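A quick aside before the break. I want you to see a complete sequence-to-structure record at least once, exactly as it would be stored in a machine-readable document. Don't worry about memorizing anything.
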Amino acid sequence: MCVFSESRLTDVRQIQSGTLIYESSNISKTMTDFFAAFKALTSKDPLPPHIYAQPIICGVPGMGKALMLSWVWSGGPETHDEASVWLEKIAGLAPCIQRATSTTTPRAAMAALTAMFPPGVQGACHSVSLSDYSTDSVGRLSQAVSEMRADGASALILHSLTSNSPSTYEAAVSKRSVFRNRGSHLLVEIIGCGRTEEAADAASRWAEAARQNLDDADTALEGTYPAMSGMDDVRLEKTYGPHAEYLRILKKEVDSDLVFKHSTPNISVL
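That is the input. The structure line, written in tokens, reads:
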């Protein structure tokens, strides 16, 4: 079987990247203040396409649980002044106690982000999609953090699909997407892992409880991301919504012999 696809590539050799850490002695208050300020900022002044600001809440050695933000600016040298302005805005959303950013390569930035988490852990990963940072959803995020292990192997990572992304409904290409949630939204990645089998079991239970609680948030969306979800929570209709039947038709046309029979979620041709 031959599969052809087209991908638009952008030649980005250097980016500005780094991590911001916010004062988190009262992490619930920090999260409440940060996300309220973030929502107010982006409602008034949407993030430019060059920026990616990814909140992360996890255990930090010597600090306990902390709210951090992974910062990436992919604009060229001519946009560095704009990058500095936005970095100041993001850093000012809550008391920022550490800011380390530099010019680097995408590969080095990814390696630095990966190094934040310990290798060789085991556990479970779940995801929940939210339409917005509401008071209710932030409260549920704070509850999950209060119950999260602080050993650095578990985390909440918040990914944003913004209105200027080519994958949103506002963009022309979006009509060709089979994914359910293509409007601007947030993906909460829930990582429940541990270094030992006992710690991993406890973290896995925490991750599942956090997913269930966030699924009941007032801004929770139907559907999830298969690559960041537990197998029991990945269902065809839930993930792809009204496009599920179209996927079944495509599957029957191009793979009626079920060569790719271990897809997640499983696409039945029956």
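Two observations worth writing down. The CA atoms of residues 50 and 58 lie 26 Å apart. The longest strand covers residues 51-60. We'll return to this after the break.
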